[in-house]
Amino acid sequence: MSLAGKTLHLCSCNGTMPLDGEALARSLDLAAAPPVRTMLCQKELGVFADQVAGDVVVACTQEARLLGDLAEERGKTRTIRFVNVRETAGWSAQANAATPKIAALLALAGLPEPEPVPSVSYRSGGQLLVVGPADAALHWAGVVAAQLSVTVLITGRAAGTELPATRDFPVFSGEVTAVTGWLGAFDVTWKQANPIDLDLCTRCNACIRACPEKAIDWSYQIDLERCRSHRACVAACGATAAIDFARTDVVRSERFDLVLDLSRVPILRLHEPPQGYLAPGADAVAQASAVAGLPAMVGEFEKPKYFAYKASICAHSRSQKTGCRQCIDVCSTGAIRADGDHVVVEPHLCMGCGGCTTVCPSGALSYTYPSVPDFGRRLRTVLATYAKAGGRDACLLLHAARAGENMSRLARRGPGLPARVIPLEVHHVASVGLDVWLAALAHGASQVAVLALGDEAPEYREALERQMRIADTIAQALGYQGQHFRVFDAAATDFGAELAAWPAALGVRAAATFALTADKRTTAALAIEHLLQHAPVPQREIPLPAGAPFGTIAVDGDACTMCLACVGACPEGALLDHAEMPQLRFIEAKCVQCGICRETCPERAITLSPRLALGREAKEPRVVNEAAVFHCVSCGKPMGTEKLIGTMLAKLAGHSMFAAPGALERLKMCADCRVVDLIKNEKSVDIRDV
Question: Are strands 622-626 and 149-154 parallel, antiparallel or unpaired?
Fold first, then answer.
């Protein structure tokens, strides 16, 4: 789909940005140049109303509501899309050179919507747990009790706090030991830390009057430091049985839909806590804001399932030998955990950052919102249109939606984005990694920049920069000079100047035509193959930094017994045996450097070496070790490798079961000959000899 057949409405916003309708028409294959309005949202609104019909594209987002309502009122439009060309291109110190970028941004409006993704459902009935110090917890529980079903869990000493005069909601006391779950399904476990069970207490005050040390106040909790264990309170409580000094440390648990954690230090110390868990800390304003948002979290909700998982190629573990755990380490929500040989990703906890898919070396975890093929279509459209319009040295600026305000501020108050910097929105900047970056270079980009907001989890920033070092190592080794990948901070007041000062890097001479695929390593391979084909300095192999998802292995032939345990352990099929001879073969293009083969090898004969092998040889099996065949000393039948049999004989030589004459020699025979030899022996055959 393209803009051909669509009605394009351009507006220079009162002449504040240059728009070349004829140049845009040529770049976008339009039948005629669209007129450039100056005040489409005001004095030319009538013209828009008369012409808005069919499929419409409007080069303005500020007045999207006004123009969208008008189009709906007219009832003649099938689709209408709004594109921001003002803050992203027209309001810039380099606006006169921004026509190729404007064409590229408008071309995106001609693409179909991304494929729909599965959804994740939540159901919240409004069961709220308020946990924290007594004064704050009871106060906010009272505020929200009319709207939600509230339970209070008082933590720490409640001295000086008086429980409510009416029992409007359950009150417990204790120390939280665990909070797990998500919106609509939180499981909270706590230990009761005081002899008085507030749920059983009738608040009759008999215990307060009976205590000689005045260790009980109106919070109905015992100050155990002042208590002298007279147990007068127990007697006063009587049949109510709310006081039991043996009850402390009793574990209790309940399920809630929402958790309001008022602790000074949050119970869940996650960069991205689960939806439905609010931890505003001790600040009263933050607490009020959190409480105000609680009623909106009641009902049924849906969000996209941001990932797909292919367990068969996951390199996490095999046979209890751990290989890759990068997704577990990078996840800021605690959504990923080990599960035997694979991992489990809890979609209710996943927030869609995509960091796991970026660091996954095999592509077992892939991002789906949008999928790489859908995002790749946008990337290719932008770069192809930009080049067709005469643009050079394109720099893709990947940013989240929230960073749009930073770019708008830069356009309003500063020099705006440079003409060659093309913003491309993603759900989260950590969701795009090495495969897509290299594909961008192959399709004609000079550079890829990531605009970080600064509030991303530090693990994501580290992962992005680590992946960028790998990608730049590849590009520069092939002769593409300059820095191609970089993270910029949107919070920096001069990030626009930094972008403008970033010198363009050498790009590919001819843009690629391949489509990006959902298979991460296939996309990366296609990109690298194209970059190699046009490389100023072709290479056979490129050394890579530690942690790279490409590499080879070295096998110590003296130590290896050709047991082939590594072949069965390799999750990617990079290690192969041979059907007719004792050979260990290796396909380098499939290796993800997970290290499972190294951990599985009983002789510790395997070492890893990160590198990128280029050319056809990397895709074909090569022999990394082989051994001479050992033949039965009696009949000559092949029965293993000389190394394996020799190792076995050496280990069993001193064993008492093989001390008899001929016992070790029998181990050199095949199974059939071994039986024959036992029968020929004068000693009666014992089952233990077989």
Answer: unpaired
What Cα–Cα distance (Å) separates residue 327 from each residue in 303, 314, 336? Answer: 21, 11, 7
Which of left, alpha, beta for 565 (phi over 0: left; psi -120 to 50: alpha)?
alpha
Is the same domain home to 424 and 345? Answer: no
The pTM (predicted TM-score) of the whole model is 0.89
- Give every strand in the sheet of 541-543, ordered side by side: 541-543, 606-613, 551-555
Domain span at residue 330?
Answer: 305-367
Contact 576, 586 (CB under 8 A): yes
| CA 456 distance to own-chain centroid | 12
Q: Which of 248, 257, 124 is nearest to 179 (CA)?
A: 257
DSSP letter string, 188-232: EEEE--SSB-TTT-----HHHHH-TT--B-TT--B-TTT-----H
Instruction: Give per-residue pLDDT as tens, 145-174.
Output: 999 999 999 998 877 788 988 899 999 999
Residue 34 three-state SS: coil
Q: Verify that 200 and 293 share a domain, yes or no.
A: yes
The phi and psi torsions of 133 (rounded to 5 degrees) equal -55, 150
Are 555 and 515 in the same domain? no
535, 478 in Cβ contact below 8 A? Answer: yes
Q: Which of 367, 386, 411 is the last residue of a domain?
A: 367
User: What residues contact 621, with CB distance under 8 A and at least 6 apart?
Assistant: 576, 585, 586, 587
Over the stretch 668-690, which tens digit does the pLDDT of each residue have? 999 999 888 888 875 644 555 55
Sheet containing strand 54-58, edge to edge, reads 36-37, 7-11, 54-58, 77-82
Are residues 406 and 380 located together in one domain of the fold? yes
Query: Cβ distance 77 to 56 under 8 Å?
Result: yes
